[in-house]
Amino acid sequence: MTDNSGFSCEQLREIGAELALGVLPAEDRAGVMDHLEHCPACREYVHELTATSDALLDLVPGSEPPVGFEDRVIDRLGLSSVRRPRRRVQWRRFALAAAAAAAGLALGGGGWVLGASVGRPAPVAPIVSPVQPHLLTAQLAHAGQSFGQVYLYTGSSPWLYMAVDADGHSGTVRCQLQRADGSIVKVGSFTLNDDGYGSWGGPYLAGTSPVTGVRLLNADGSLLASATFNQSYG
Amino acid sequence: MGRIGIPLERVPDEALLAGLMTGDPEIAVAFVRRFQRRVFGVAIAVVGDVQLAEDIAQQTFERACRHAQVYDPRRGSVPTWLAAIAHNLAIDAVRARKTTPVDPADLENMMETITDTPERHALSTETAVELRRAVGTLPREQARALVMAGIYGMTAQQVADFEEIPLGTAKTRIRTAMGKVRASLAARQVDHD
Fold it and tell me: Hey, are the CB atoms on B5 and A163 less than 8 Å from each other?
């Protein structure tokens, strides 16, 4: 296919790799975008190359940032003034790292890699974080079938997130919160793809009555799945 | 009524990102902790300067926080998204410095790391293992061109100058290497479908 600017699919294949890698000089990009806009095949080709380019970065080894990095990021995000007191957190990290060191064990299993100490890149002290009392999870289910998982965060800025895998369902679904006082409030809607997969997250109003469950409704209002939290939380 | 919960490790990356949008400091801390090695690793690999790499890593989290709502899981995982942000910022910083894109010794180290045998990366994802294998089986000059362009953001002209080869040869090496790696990943995808 050759478009109005005279740019062909063959030409695109010549420079697609450089385009996807982000190293194609600006002067060589002339005509590329127009072509991509009108050629789905080349768009898909570049999309695959871009995914390959992104995947290359997975091979770059991780590296511990300098000590204090986390605090400086939180400062930069403007969240340091509302952050919980540091003293307790640091003590806990130290205690856990020290306990791990004393036991001669590396606590793995997805534990965080936390920095401590002074100077140069922080030494690795993998620990497992404690249970978060404000963070809950429950399975989305209906008629004995699992449809995904919901995460509910009931801290100072409450939010929820859900990943849905509902084979045979697609289109818009609505999410509702159930509260202990019997009230039900809509908190958002999102779309399941043709495979029945979708995910969505967002904040919700804390309210005065604790949240007891989450309901997911089909477009026609019928219940797709629901999740119940064992305890009630705001 | 007791208050129980789950550890933050059990929260998927996407859920943590959703929480990040609310501006909750506890979630922000958890998010930074989970991905800081990844983000800083990409930044330091490209710019080779701790101070500049930290600034890039900070900017990456700032952008992630601002643009969390545009994250699309269909286009890649959260760590891949973050690495791409950090990489773009790092490449921009290197280009702004107008210095030599990469030190030859750094390039050699990166080549060793990237084409290392999978056995030493037992915790890598399947895709990363396949990718490492694919890059490792490329002819050396193609793998170098791919790393120079893909990791260090060098243009074909810069690759040509660095390797002292014609521009056309540099372009061919980049294109051929990317084609082979893409085909390898695509074949793996087909195997899993």
Answer: no
